[in-house]
Amino acid sequence: MMFAICNPVITVESQIGLSLNILCGFGVEEIAEAFLTNRETIYKRLQRVKEKLRLTNIKIELPSDDEIGLRINAVLTTLYLLFNEGYYSSAQNITLRKDLCIEAMRLNLMLIENELTDIAAANALLALMCFHASRFDARINNDGEIV
Predict the structure, then answer these.
(1) How many other C-beta atoms are found inside a 10 Å radius of the C-beta of residue 3?
(2) Does 94 map to a domain?
(3) Least confident among 15-19, 39-43, 55-59, 73-77
(4) Which domain holds residue 106?
(5) Across residues 84-98, what is the average pLDDT?
(6) What is the pLDDT of residue 119?
(7) CB atoms within 10 A of CB 16
(8) Within a 13 Å sphere around the CA of 114, how many CA atoms are in the beta-carbon half?
(9) Taking 70 as the threshold, does the pLDDT of residue 91 lie above it?
(10) Res. 139 pLDDT band, cuts 50 70 90
(11) Rounded CA gap, 104 and 100, in Å?
(12) Does 146 map to a domain?
């Protein structure tokens, strides 16, 4: 589905924001933190892209094999931001959300297992995720506080 949403007809920022919102369940606040911007900017961006998709009647459908290469970088960025939200959670009282990190890693592994998306950038991203995941237990103490 990320490849379906990451349509080059819309800006890369909008592709990623829409993926985080619709597929990952991020709210405007979480997306704003991921993009290092304010809530209003993200809210307007999401509204504009949804309106553009509606008015131009762009179908959200899986791309052809040829189009996957045009969309892979936005998908990888979305996975990185999903992992990042888990690793540096913006949610109150939660320092580490392993479930988000593991889901990002699972999706990235699926990319690597597919010959169309098994590219160096996907492998590098998975390696980065594995490195950080190896440090999960060292990041927080028994009380859930950052070490």
Answers:
(1) 20
(2) yes
(3) 55-59
(4) 2-139
(5) 79
(6) 97
(7) 24
(8) 13
(9) no
(10) confident
(11) 6
(12) no
Per the listing, tokens 């959300």 go with: 97
Q: Give the total number of structural domains in the chain.
A: 1
* Secondary structure string (H, E, C) spanning the chain: CHHHHCCCCCCHHHHHHHHHHHCCCCCHHHHHHHHCCCHHHHHHHHHHHHHHHHHCCCCCCCCCHHHHHHHHHHHHHHHHHHHHHHHCCCCCCCCCCHHHHHHHHHHHHHHHHCCCCCCHHHHHHHHHHHHHHCCHHHHECCCCCEC
CB contact burial 69-90 (16+ within 10 A = b; e otherwise): eebbebbbbbbbbbbbbbbebe
- State both tokens at 77: 């960025």
For residue 72, give every residue at least 6 positions away whose Cβ sits within 8 Å of its Cβ, in sequence order, or none.
111, 117, 119, 121, 122
One-letter identity of residue 82: L
Give the predicted TM-score (pTM) of the model.
0.88
